[in-house]
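queue> holo job accepted (flavin-adenine dinucleotide)
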Amino acid sequence: MAGYEQREALVVGAGPVGLTAALALRSYGVPVTVLEAGPDGRQRPGSRAIFTHSNTLTILDRLSPGLGAELSTHGVYWNTQRTFYEGREVYAKTYPDPPAGTYPHFTSLPQVHIEAYLYARAVAAGVEFAWDQEVADVAADAEGVTVTTAAGTAWRAPYVIGADGSRSVVRRQIGARMEGSRDEGWYIVVDVAELEQPALPNERHFHYAHPAVGGRNVLVVPFAGGYRVDLQLVDGDDPEALASPEGVRAWLDAVLPAGYADRTTWVSTYQFLQLVAHDFADPTRRVLLVGEAAHLFAPFGARGLNSGVPDAEAAALAVVLARQATNPAAARSAVETFALARRSAALFNRDAAGEALAHLRPTPERAAEVRAAAERAPQDEAASTWLEKAPYGPRGVPRAETVYRY
Ligand SMILES: Cc1cc2nc3c(=O)[nH]c(=O)nc-3n(C[C@H](O)[C@H](O)[C@H](O)COP(=O)(O)OP(=O)(O)OC[C@H]3O[C@@H](n4cnc5c(N)ncnc54)[C@H](O)[C@@H]3O)c2cc1C
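queue> job finished
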């Protein structure tokens, strides 16, 4: 078609989920171009996702053999987890080291590093990148999709995967609505770089009602090169003041050993979002939404990137099946199967986040249960384990993530 850059498949957005979708398409032999609004060589801010589940590593290994192991080698793993209530330890467990030759169940490293490894793999797999392409318009018809940038460049392909993040233009353009809620409570997340002489153990700690910060909940998670500290604010707190350089320094000094408050590399605030697009594909079934373009969850619980990666694999597979389909109905069906399966996975995650939130912002009845469990723990093993697990919501991955196979 004259006036268009014609391609076999387009991915909008070179974040971790778009990179995974492109890598997946290449693993199935489909030529793909990624349209990214940012410039070549851009530096993305902050570390964002750190905790990468084993299911994510397994998928990445499937799409690019050795990638899961590569992330694992460069990330950190801890096998001790502790939970405290008002400063008293109510749970502690040290798991055995993973068997030699296997990699652990998760790895923890900054998203910027994850993206760098994904990008290198995508380049090696032959993904084409088009930078400075801010997508502004998406128009789908029975034969394909035309994507036009703010600068007026038009691209066309039979299928488009929209991975353009939380403010997705692709989502808006196809008329998908976000459904769900935003909780009023605020959280502050701070990354600190490791000291030359580490003063923190390589362990994950969750504190209910930390006595040094007025009874607020605190989570400390290691990652390659530092620690993430998540502070849950209480009603009446001013998020801006507590996230200001002086505010952060004051509470960080109270919960971490001396020296870390001088090593802050990133601060941000967030609220619990539980938003899922009403449909993960457009009405023509040629535009597919993945990652934060399709769903938004709170960072707490690590469900963002970890569900975006299976979205990306499933979307790429749907595009492959749709391209191979011998009639339009079969092609639609491949995309519809993706949209239903990944939306149901997102709803599972939304509900899981909801359960975590119910524990973190408890009703008076739940707060009394937590206090009673803390009084019985750690001697009462069931109470102890409940206190440890409940802040993150139900474990596991939605069934749809395990049944999708090529
Ligand atoms: C503090 C914090 C902690 C987190 N921790 C975790 C964690 O431990 N584990 C986890 O799984 N998840 C975590 N997450 C969530 C995770 O960071 C996101 O789920 C992930 O970044 C989503 O990736 P994405 O590719 O969908 O979107 P993004 O990373 O937002 O990438 C979107 C890309 O699209 C590009 N783009 C945007 N608009 C356009 C346009 N119009 N045209 C072209 N390109 C465009 C952007 O420049 C960007 O490159 C965390 C998030 C935060 C904020």
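queue> The CA atoms of residues 274 and 351 lie 8 Å apart.
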